[in-house]
Amino acid sequence: xxxxxxxxxxxxxxxxxxxxxxxxxxxxxxxxxxxxxxxxxxxxxxxxxxxxxxxxxxxxxxxxxxxxxxxxxxxxxxxxxxxxxxxxxxxxxxxxxxxxxxxxxxxxxxxxxxxxxxxxxxxxxxxxxxxxxxxxxxxxxxxxxxxxxxxxxxxxxxxxxxxxxxxxxxxxxxxxxxxxxxxxxxxxxxxxxxxxxxxxxxxxxxxxxxxxxxxxxxxxxxxx
Length: 224
Known about the structure:
Elements: E1 2-7, H1 11-22, E2 26-31, H2 34-43, E3 48-51, H3 60-68, E4 75-79, H4 84-92, E5 97-100, H5 105-119, H6 121-131, E6 134-137, E7 142-145, E8 148-149, H7 154-166, E9 171-172, H8 173-179, H9 189-204, E10 213-216, E11 220-223
Parallel strand pairs: 1-2, 1-3, 3-4, 4-5
Antiparallel strand pairs: 6-7, 7-8, 9-11, 10-11
């Protein structure tokens, strides 16, 4: 399923779009908070962002460059603002498309498919998954490494799952705590280091010729 993040404070509209796109094999995760949306991009690998402009906390036009600081993920602006300046600024700041409200969800779906086809988003994701030594089976809460199931605790599973989903991105130690329901909020960052060490040991029992989880000094870890 194509994974899309929507940042939209009109919850009724978000629900309509979410339900329609789900029927088209597109899973939408919506948040009405732009700051929460930026955090979510750090915690999960999405293929596209649908962004409203008139948002609480911060204007959508200010969100675009914040996304672009970290990612080249496609962005579709979905807004009732029809000022030509908003459209120009949105595209100049890095958005890929501008869809004025109101619109039919079918048109949004068509634009999503067109952008992903042009950028290779969905196919690129499948290709990356084929190349990976890790297979994530979320329904079973299992991770397969080189055809063998890793024996992980729930916290270790959450950590390795996030590393796989972020696919080479550097993840701060704090983000592992925020992303897991099985790591206490008051856990020290040292506890994350200990759990990473245990995961590395379990991986090395299958393949000890390569270090798959790299330490990034002063920040956290990345899967390589």
